[in-house]
Amino acid sequence: MSDFVFATAQYDSGDWDSAPLLPANVIDSIARYTAIDVAPTGVIVPLAAPALFRYPLVYLTGHLPVRFTAAERENLRAFAQRGGLLFVDDHNHDIDGVFHKTATEELARVYGPLREIPNAHPLYRCFFTFEDGPPTTSHELNGWGDNLVHKTLSGAEHEGRLSLIYSSKDYSSEWNYHPDNKRFLSVDNTKFAVNLVVYALTR
Amino acid sequence: MTARERVMALQRLLLAVVVLRALFIGASLALLVTAVARLLALSPRATALAATTGLFVAILVLRRGLGARSIERVALWVEERHPALQYALVTATEAPAPPDVECQALATPWWDVERRGLLRTLVAPGAVLIAVVLLLALVPSASTSSIAQRVRAVAGTGAGGVVHDPLAAIHVTVRPPAYSGQAERSLDDPTSVDALVGSRVIVSGPGDAELVRATLDSSAVAASRADDRWAVAVVMPARPMLLRLRSTTQGGRERLVVLAPESDAPPAVTLLAPARDTTVRAASGALVLRAQLRDDIGLRDANFEIIVSSGQEETFTFRSAVLAHRTFGGRSGGTLEARLSLDSLALKPGDIVQMRAVARDANDVTGPGVGSSETRALRVARAGEYDSVAVEAAPPGDPEGQVLSQRMLITLTEALANRRRSMDRPTLLTESRRIAADQARLRKRVGDVVFQRTGGQPLGEEGDAGVPEGKLTPEQLLERARGAGNDAGSPMDVEGDETPILALNKPLLEAFNAMWDAGRALEQGEPSQALPPMRRALAAIERARQAERIYLRGRPAAVIVDVARARLAGKDKGSSAVSTERFTADPAARRRAESFARASALLARDRDAAADSLLVMRVAALGDSPALAAVLDTAARVTRRGSAEDVALAWARVRRALAGPPVRRDSLPAWDGAP
Questions:
Q1: Closest residue, chain B, to A68 (C-alpha)
Q2: Do residue B560 and residue A41 have CB atoms under 8 angstroms apart?
Q3: Residue-wise pLDDT tens digits, B200-222
Q4: Cα separation values, B86 from B91, B238, B526, Å
Q5: CATH of the domain at A85
Q6: Class of domain B268-383
Q7: What is the number of CB-based contacts under 8 A between chain A and chain B?
Q8: ipTM
């Protein structure tokens, strides 16, 4: 069995590489808490490339407007139909922001209307248990963005499992630090990333 | 009045009575049948049957009286009824008779007796006719006839009467939504109805509304009655659905009609200008925006959307605007134009303007459908990016200073090598040296690039001091670079033990040296010998170009995690998840294959049921496999009414459509061991 490889989506518009340290941090957490064989570095995969289908979980973020090309849209649709999970995080954490507005519009064109993921969803219990749903980030009340604590994530399902998870919580800022600095935290704030990976691999 | 004249008068009366009796009897019978049909709520066809029966009986009655057309036979008929005449009447009728015979024929007033007798024969049929007319007036209508209801309930006959099955022949009327401007259309006996979402679909058939139960995707739909027909009206749903019609008569069957919605496609929008993304040093002037719009039914309005993003890192601000809003009033196509003043946007370095055209259609049922073009971006470069991004267009170069590309020089040399046999030596030498001069000019340009990078001065004109006349080794190049004062000490990615200078300039140095070899051969009038080094030079230039491609955005810094060190070092423990079975790669295809197998099993026993199964499959296929849906519809229709050969062919087509297009393999799959 091949190692799990964390993939960051590269799309034609916007700043897709706005959280360059996040993949290493997630990879470190996978190794730290699970026995999942994981590649030591992440990869960058263009959304329109067939290589997208090699990765069960693909992470997408940015601050700028998201406008998928027709090829990106088509590839993403096929990715969902083949069982891939796309995790999208708004790096602006602003529901009135342009990333949120454009990304949700584009995602709805591919996945259909986004729905709230209930906090009792298996996503929050498949490895670590998050009773209250998605963990709050320190960036949700930092004065930037919409200054809201988002109680839920939203997403879309295909054949009974999540094929899209959309977050306005700014995990991209929360997890974008070198994994060596994790030792300074009393509570590891990347544990939810482990659930994302475990869910993508087991459901 | 003579005896013959009296017989002729009686003949006329006799003919009239015969015709009237026939009419009375035929009409009485026809009306009686009609009254019974109304009483039993039989279909309008029963009335036609009654009329036919009456006409038939009338003709029979009339035929019996045809003998009255002959005056001799009328005379004989009278003689038969009055024997005292002793054939005097027949004799007087056939020819002018003697007076005594005439007197004998008129001796008794037989004409009065027969006239009264004939008129009496009309009384009974007339009375029957009046009675039947009264009966018809008194018979209640079918809808209120309890006898009809009882008969339907017990005998299982529908309102069709002769047509016992109310679902035997259905009629569908489709009324598209008003915004589409499409005309109403009708379909007879369809298995599937294709119509725009929101269309009103009215399914009707002969008979009473109580005889039909309708459900649309498990929701009951009420049937109504109009003009001796039942009717079920539904609105075309957004996704394919089955309309199930079930007859409530004894042994009544079910009939399926697939409602196949046709979606109103969103407008197709193409942004014609600007044609590509652009990066500029300073944004000023106006930008022309032009878009082409099309819609399958009709456009409502369109506009350009502008988003201006400013900022960097974590701090971004955005402005958005709508430009050139225009209504199209339902036209199917058009163009949208606008001029965007960049000055008014007050763009700063780093700002990005994203533009797209958005159009909405006139769909007021499920829409409006919104279509958008690809997005174009105009970016204002930051100061630090000026050496690596496109800046303002430069004026045309000095024609004398132009150099031909290496690729063009190779083309010229190849042409010269091909023509050399037909040329004399002096001409060949002249043309070859002309190419050699171009090659030397290009070599000088490459040398400039190499020396500028190594901190040296650009090469002078051909023949100036310092111009390398021969090949340079990397060591010589390095020596020259050191001598020029090395300030290219910034860190670079290099391979092996190479110095940064060598790593950077190696391909160009190779090109520089190959060009020297090529120039020397061309100077000697040997174009064929010049070609291999020229091609080496081209390949080296290509490598250099690839190696130095600059990515503005760059890649995120690669952090390599020490997985082994981090493995299970975390203090928190999670609960291992139980892996659940994933769906197959194409679950829809698997489900279709299973459904088709079940339908195939039904085909031998019950063709209608097999056809219904295909229709159910079609509903599922309409969304994502239109080709399969089309062959399923054909197969369902053929299965109901076609011959065995047609059915086999149609089902084979379904099977092929299920299997998908054939996959071409270049070779046999690899052997992976014995099973």
A1: B374
A2: yes
A3: 999 888 888 788 888 888 888 88
A4: 10, 94, 147
A5: 3.40.50.12140
A6: mainly beta
A7: 123
A8: 0.85
